[in-house]
Fold each of these.
Amino acid sequence: MECVAEGALRERQADAAEQLLQRGLPPGALFIEDGSSPQIVAGPSTIGLELAAQWPAEVVIAPVGNGALIGGLATALKAANPTIETIGVQSSASPCI
């Protein structure tokens, strides 16, 4: 799954990250670009594992923002139940989708 921001929003996001990295991070700080790290996606995977263990479902509907939540959720659910369907939804006003 990929979430692409375009136009002014994407430019502002890229500019903010670039400016932060150009200035340098304070000692001991870690820059995490939301949704691009396996560790970020691993967190929501625990939600999928708990759902699979506690609530048998055929379909799960989840919000889509940058893709990290639904990516981790769907990965874990599919591993637990290969026939499950995960559907992503987002507001029509969202600049991402």
Amino acid sequence: MKKGDVVTLMTLAGEIIGRVAESDYETITLTAPRLFVQTDEGAGFARGVCMTGAGYPAELVFRQNQILSVVPTDDELSEDWSAVTSDVEVPATSEIAL
């Protein structure tokens, strides 16, 4: 795991996906962290990492002693996370004018 990697934190609260900003023996800082959730309609990303916290946090610090494991995020989920947290709007279809 290195700075810039998109990772999944396995915690007792669930799986949190974000980009590594900093990491040391005590903490890991993620940018744009999102809790991965499963609903009746399917899976997706919550507005943040807890129900009562501010939505769409830019960055959060997690204590290493509260994390069960840190794993690389699945490529497809990493792309989905990037699309959800990016300010860039991607068109639904590609059109090239000639």
